[in-house]
Every structure is written in structure tokens, then in C-alpha cells.
């Protein structure tokens, strides 16, 4: 952190004031590290307890192996850490590349107020959920093997996904970095980083297309294990298309909570345009949902999936498709027609549940559905997942409370930062 | 040994084997019997009708791989009371299944890695920890493995086994005694087999032997060699005294080699890498251009 800071400082301010700037920056960052606001809120106490106990469980996992905390078995090598944390979490992080496309490529001004928070969310999702992958790896210290080149598994979809995760994290950090530069009050660095962002966005969209679909392509290798209602040669395309509405619905859900939790941080521009932004997101989601429904329909006919509909898994499939794909589509249409932002937000929740169901059905619930002894997650697996989500929320809040994430994207740097500092000092004084 | 087998083939009727092979020429032609380097694949022929369940193969495997000694001794028949799976400490197991034709002669079936011609595990592995050798063995480089267990997800036979209760776990499975093969020896299990139920040789020869046996004793065998076409052909072949579903073997396997299931997707990757950026850059310029001219027309608004 310090190295990067100094390097950027040097590029921003020139070598003359390097030491000064570095010292200033370090002092500023250190002062910012301190917690702000009330400590003993219910949210802090609950999530704090979850994180602390989760860390103990993670320690147990590394001391005694995966079997000590998880219900994973020889029959079920992948559980919810992969199926939920990684496969579902990454789908929800798809909002970043979709909105970057809309704002940076299509230049739709309307969504500019939420682009920063969406990119931040996407970036943190990758850091934490792809980070959760390290918990699941038996030998996480070997995670560098496919990167440093002593063993390139070029025929592996997972090789592609691993590389893309890493590259995409860099892209998302670049996309978000102007905000960091703004926070640190380095106008020159900010300008340079903003210059890079179009490139990062284009590269990021390409990477996202491939690894969102790649997560689905992972399961192409299990044609006898994934239930025929979910197995399909189209699974990569479906994962990609569903990541569009998964990501958009997560943006809407996130905005619902941010409106409540960070009321005083949200710029007036976003406040005023909020309903119209939500409706716009709903329109995007409904387009992707239609594409998804058609893909599902093609599969239904091509793989003659109706023969499985009369089974328990068939009812479960219908539950997913009717309740969480078709119904959200209808509700989105209704909400757009009546310009009902509340209904859009509600439907976003419904859509998100559908995405969770779908990802779990492919990777956990419908995976080896025929076995007599089935996998279900252990309490500690769920607990550690909750701990990771809690940690992400803490970091998210830390960033929101310090960096101009919700502020207007095109305001003058210095003014905004000054205003932020006022809020910060005011908050500190309240404490 | 090889010579006597050749003679046996001549006597017992190579013609029969050829006829059987000819029954499905298109499919037979698809299955490669040599590696990319042109080396004849080694293979193993398991004749379930010859297996007496002595578990000598299990014991030999245990010794050859220096695995921990099991609680129940290798001479005990008590293990047959339940169907066992391979474990991190037992790369091959023999299971007993009832024989419907002759109830007093149960059928014993070995289970271990099938050493696929085009293994799913090796194509799944992102750090080439699983690797198919030119000679046939699918081996495991434990120093490369990161423990992601995608090989276990991919394996159509559920063979790789993971050490869940170790902080430094590995994935274990039969590696076809690769080192012994390199030394010119046959694998420990086939060497130990007293009845010839496990027979080591070139896969092409073994297929002919298997077909000859079916041809000469059509009532004894199911008229299918398990592993000839499954998942694109496997290095280990099974002659079955009862249908595969009665012998605890996977029944619904496609004949497609598993790497082909993802190759379509992987071929698309460079396409997306070329097309997406160029299309996006083009789109970006196009829209930037039209926005600028819009602004110029409207007023002297600020440039982008």
C-alpha cells in the first residue's frame, strides 16, 4: 500500500515534493484508517461477532483441513463456497461491467451517479468472493502455479477463469482508482488514471464476457453429474446473459440499502434521479431476462427437457423458472409501464433470488442429484460465508464513508474533497 | 508371455475379433489406440469372470504405492459385505456383486482409475497436475496441485480422492504404476493377479483378446467391452459377466471424449478477445463522435 502510494505521489506531484507528499499522504491515510461514527450499533455488534468467530473457523480450516469445517466429501468436492461465494457472487458482481458499458461506451449520462459505487461493489465482490476461493483450495499457496508459468493448464476452463479473475480485479481497480486519487487529493494522478479508464473498461467487458460464461463452462465437464434440466451446451451463454440481470438487480438492491444507510453521503444528483435510474436498470434487466427465457426455451426443446418435468427436480426447476424468471419479467414490465420504482426494487430482489437458485441448482443442488447421501452445507461453511459477506460490507462502508463514491462524477476535485472532509470532521466531532 | 498370447490369438480366431471390431467400424475408428507421439497405448484388461476376489491386486497396490496398511487384512472377505469406493489410501478396490445366472458364483469387479485416452481430469486441471503420459498412465504431479478439486468434479468415474482432513492435502488415485512401467515392468496389480483376471498389455492387443473371448464364449460375457467407447475410450477395459448396471459401473456415460465438451468454449475465447475490444472501441468512437456533434449543434457546450 505504502509503496503504491508513494509511487503515485511521485508521479502526481513531481520529485521535488516527493517526501512531503508521501509523508502527508501516509498521515492522511493513517488518520482515515480510524473508525468513524458510533461503534456499538446493532449492525457492528452482529457482523463483528460473525467476523471474529468466522476468523476462528478459518484458522481451524487451515490447521486441520477442509474436512474440519465443511461437509465436503469425495462425492461432493464443491460446496457452497464455490457454488454460492464464487459462482453466485461473481454473477452479482456483473453489474460493474454492464454499467461500465452503458456509461463509458454508450455514454448514457443518466447512470453516471451510480457508476462509482457499482464498480466499487464489483471490485470488492471479486476481492472477497474470489478471495473465498483461497479458503476452498486445498493448497492455496500453489494458486500462483498457473500464473507464474511452471504449469499452464491451457486446456482448462478453470485456467481461463483464474487468469480472468486476476486481470479483471486489476481492471476494476483501475476503473475505481480515480476515486482513490480524488480521496488522496492527487489531481494529476487522477487525470492519468481517468485516461486509462476507457481502456480498462473495454478490457474489463471482454474479460467479464469470458469469465462469466467461463463459470458456466466449468460445468460442461460434468454432463452426467449436473441434472439434465440444468445441463446444456449453452450453459456458458446462459451464465453470461443471466449475469447481466443478476448484476443489474444487485445494483438495484445495493441502492436500496445505500439509500437507507448512507443517506448523507449520497449526492443530490443521484437523489433526484434515483427513481428514473431504477426504472432504467429495470429496463436493462428485462431485456436480458427475455434473452435468457429464449435460451431456456431453446434448451427445453433441444434437450427434450419435458421428460424430466414430472419428477421432484422437475417441480424444483419449474419453481425456479416460473417464480424467479417469468414472474420477475412480468413484474419488471408492469413496473416500467406504471413507472413504479418501488416495484422495480422489489422485483430486483426476486430476480436475485432466482439467480442464487439457478447457480446453486447447477453447482450444488442439481449436482449429483441421484446420490443417496447428499451434500448440504455445514453450519461453519455458512458461517464463514456470512463472515466474508460481513467483511465485505465493512470495507464497503469504510470506503463509502471516506471516498467520494456517491458524489457527482464530474464535480471539481478539490471542492468535493473539502466538502467530504467537513462531513468527516463533523462526524468525528459527534463521536 | 506376449508370444503365447499372439499364438492364442491366431488359434482362437483373430477373424472373430476382426469381425466384432468390424461391427461398428465408424466408432472403432474414432478411438485412438496410440498417443500423439505414435506410441502404442498400454492398457489393462479386467475379466470379471476370471476374478476370484482374492484381493491380491489390492495388497500389491498397497505395497507398490507405500500406502498405509488397512485395518482389515487383505485376506479377509468381510470387506465384501458392502460396496467399497477407492480412497486416498486405497487406489484400487474389489467389490462383490451377485451373479444372477449362477448364484453361487458371485462376480468380483475391480474399481480404480480408468486411465482415459483423453482424460477429463487432465483437461480440467489448471496447473497440469493431472497429466496423461504418452504410454497411457494418467499421473499426478503433487507439487503442482493447488487442491481445487475440479478434477473430481470432472472425472466421469469419480476416481480422484482428496485428503479432506489434512492441512496440506493432495489428490490421490491409481497412476497405473507409471514408474514400474518406465522401468519396463508391469503394474503391481497385474503382476500379482493369480488368475489372469487383470491382464497388462498394449491396448490394441487387449481389445483383440477381449473380443476373441466374447466371440468364443458368447454366453459367458455381456457383448460389450466396457471402456472401449466410454468417454472416448479408456486405457482399462472390462469384460463383464453381467450388465454394467449390475456391477456398480457408471452406465450413462457419453462416448464423447470429455475435453471436447469444453473445447468449443475455449476456441471461442480468442474470438471474443479479438472481436469484443475492436467492436467496443469502434462503438466508443462512434458514440463519442455523435455526442460531440450533438453538442456543437446545440450550443458551445463543453467538450468531453
- Poorly predicted regions of chain A: 408-419
In this structure, how is the largest beta sheet of chain A organized?
none
| Strand order in the largest sheet of chain B | 8-1-10-9
pLDDT under 50 segments of chain B (min length 5)? Answer: 5-29
Biggest interface, chains and residue tallies: A-B, 59 and 59 residues
How many structural units, i.e. domains of chain A?
1
**Number of helical segments with 4 or more residues of chain B:** 10
How many strand segments of chain B? 10
Note the quaternary state here.
heterodimer
Whole-number average pLDDT of chain B?
Answer: 88
What structural class results from the helix and strand content of chain A?
Answer: mainly alpha
The dominant shape of chain A is globular
Specify the helix fraction band of chain A.
over 70%
- CATH topology category name of chain A: Formate dehydrogenase/DMSO reductase fold
CATH evolutionary superfamily of chain A: Formate dehydrogenase/DMSO reductase domain
Helix content of chain B: 25-40%
Beta-strand percent range of chain A: under 5%
Q: From the coordinates shown, what is the CATH architecture of the largest domain in chain B?
A: 2-Layer Sandwich
**Total strand count of chain A, please?**
0
Write down the secondary-structure element order of chain A.
HHHHHHHHHHHHHHH
Mean pLDDT of chain A comes to 88
Annotation keywords:
heterodimer; A: mainly alpha; Formate dehydrogenase/DMSO reductase fold; 15 helices; B: 304 residues; alpha+beta; Alpha-Beta Plaits; 2 domains; 4-stranded mixed sheet; two-stranded antiparallel sheet; 10 strands
Amino acid at each position: 500500500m505504502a509503496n503504491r502510494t508513494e509511487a503515485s505521489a511521485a508521479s502526481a506531484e513531481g520529485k521535488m515534493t516527493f517526501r512531503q507528499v508521501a509523508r502527508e499522504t501516509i498521515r492522511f491515510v493513517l488518520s482515515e484508517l480510524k473508525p468513524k461514527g458510533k461503534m456499538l450499533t446493532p449492525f457492528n455488534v452482529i457482523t463483528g461477532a460473525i467476523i471474529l468467530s468466522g476468523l476462528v473457523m478459518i484458522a481451524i480450516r487451515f490447521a486441520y483441513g477442509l474436512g474440519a469445517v465443511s461437509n465436503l466429501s469425495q462425492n461432493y468436492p464443491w460446496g457452497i463456497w464455490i457454488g454460492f461465494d464464487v459462482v453466485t457472487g461473481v454473477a452479482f458482481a456483473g453489474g460493474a461491467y454492464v454499467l461500465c458499458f452503458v456509461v463509458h461506451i454508450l455514454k448514457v449520462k443518466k447512470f453516471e451517479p451510480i457508476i462509482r459505487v457499482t464498480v466499487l461493489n464489483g471490485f470488492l465482490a471479486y476481492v472477497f468472493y474470489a478471495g473465498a476461493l483461497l479458503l476452498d483450495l486445498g493448497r492455496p499457496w500453489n494458486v500462483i502455479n498457473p500464473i507464474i508459468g511452471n504449469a499452464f493448464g491451457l486446456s482448462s476452463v478453470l485456467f481461463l477463469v483464474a487468469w480472468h479473475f486476476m486481470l479483471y480485479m486489476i481492471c476494476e481497480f483501475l476503473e475505481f482508482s480515480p476515486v482513490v486519487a480524488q480521496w488522496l487529493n492527487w489531481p494529476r494522478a487522477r487525470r492519468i488514471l481517468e485516461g486509462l479508464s476507457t481502456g480498462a473498461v473495454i478490457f474489463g467487458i471482454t474479460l467479464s464476457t469470458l469469465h462469466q460464461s467461463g463459470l458456466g463452462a466449468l460445468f460442461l465437464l460434468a454432463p452426467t453429474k449436473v441434472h439434465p434440466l440444468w445441463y446444456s451446451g449453452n450453459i456458458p451463454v446462459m451464465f453470461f446473459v443471466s449475469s447481466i440481470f443478476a448484476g443489474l438487480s444487485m445494483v438495484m438492491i445495493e441502492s436500496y440499502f445505500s439509500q437507507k444507510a448512507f443517506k448523507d453521503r449520497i449526492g443530490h444528483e443521484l437523489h433526484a434521479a434515483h427513481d428514473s435510474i431504477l426504472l432504467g436498470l429495470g429496463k436493462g434487466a428485462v431485456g436480458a431476462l427475455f434473452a435468457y427465457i429464449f435460451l431456456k426455451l431453446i434448451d427445453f426443446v433441444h434437450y427434450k427437457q419435458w421428460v424430466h418435468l414430472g419428477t421432484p427436480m422437475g417441480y424444483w426447476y419449474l419453481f425456479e423458472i416460473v417464480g424467479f424468471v417469468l414472474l420477475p419479467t412480468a413484474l419488471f414490465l408492469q413496473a416500467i409501464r406504471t413507472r413504479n420504482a418501488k416495484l422495480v426494487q422489489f422485483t430486483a430482489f426476486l430476480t436475485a433470488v432466482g439467480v442464487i437458485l439457478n447457480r446453486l441448482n447447477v453447482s450444488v443442488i442439481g449436482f449429483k442429484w441421484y446420490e443417496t447421501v447428499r451434500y448440504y452445507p455445514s453450519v461453519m461453511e455458512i458461517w464463514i460465508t456470512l463472515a466474508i459477506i460481513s467483511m465485505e460490507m465493512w470495507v464497503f462502508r469504510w470506503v463509502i464513508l471516506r471516498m467520494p463514491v456517491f458524489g457527482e462524477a464530474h464535480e471539481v476535485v478539490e471542492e468535493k474533497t473539502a466538502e467530504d472532509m467537513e462531513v468527516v470532521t463533523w462526524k468525528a466531532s459527534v463521536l | 508371455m506376449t508370444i503365447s498370447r499372439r499364438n492364442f490369438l491366431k488359434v482362437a480366431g483373430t477373424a472373430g475379433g476382426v469381425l466384432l471390431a468390424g461391427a461398428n467400424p465408424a466408432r472403432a475408428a474414432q478411438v485412438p489406440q496410440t498417443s500423439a507421439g505414435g506410441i502404442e497405448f498400454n492398457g489393462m484388461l479386467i475379466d470379471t469372470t476370471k476374478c476370484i476376489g482374492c484381493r491380491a491386486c489390492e495388497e500389491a497396490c498397497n505395497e507398490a504405492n507405500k500406502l498405509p496398511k488397512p485395518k482389515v487384512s487383505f485376506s479377509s472377505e468381510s470387506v465384501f459385505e458392502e460396496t467399497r469406493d477407492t480412497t486416498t489410501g486405497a487406489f484400487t478396490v474389489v467389490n462383490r456383486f451377485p451373479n444372477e445366472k449362477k448364484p453361487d458364483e458371485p462376480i468380483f469387479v475391480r474399481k480404480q482409475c480408468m486411465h482415459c485416452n483423453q482424460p477429463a481430469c487432465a483437461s480440467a486441471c489448471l496447473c497440469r497436475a493431472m497429466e496423461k503420459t504418452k504410454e497411457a498412465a494418467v499421473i499426478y504431479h503433487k507439487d503442482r496441485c493447488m487442491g481445487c478439486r475440479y478434477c473430481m468434479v470432472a472425472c466421469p468415474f469419480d476416481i480422484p480422492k482428496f485428503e479432506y482432513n489434512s492441512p496440506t492435502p493432495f489428490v490421490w488415485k491409481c497412476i497405473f504404476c507409471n514408474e514400474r512401467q518406465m522401468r519396463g515392468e508391469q503394474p503391481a496389480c497385474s503382476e500379482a493377479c493369480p488368475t489372469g483376471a487383470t491382464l497388462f498389455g498394449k491396448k490394441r492387443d487387449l481389445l483383440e483378446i477381449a473380443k476373441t473371448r466374447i466371440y468364443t464364449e458368447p454366453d459367458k460375457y455381456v457383448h460389450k467391452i466396457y471402456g472401449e467407447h466410454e468417454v472416448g475410450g479408456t486405457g482399462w477395459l472390462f469384460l463383464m459377466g453381467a450388465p454394467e448396471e449390475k456391477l456398480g459401473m457408471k452406465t450413462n456415460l457419453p462416448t464423447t471424449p470429455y475435453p471436447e465438451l469444453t473445447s468449443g468454449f475455449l476456441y471461442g475465447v480468442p474470438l471474443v478477445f479479438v472481436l469484443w475490444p475492436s467492436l467496443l472501441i469502434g462503438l466508443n468512437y462512434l458514440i463519442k463522435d455523435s455526442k460531440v456533434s450533438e453538442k456543437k449543434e446545440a450550443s458551445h457546450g463543453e467538450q468531453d
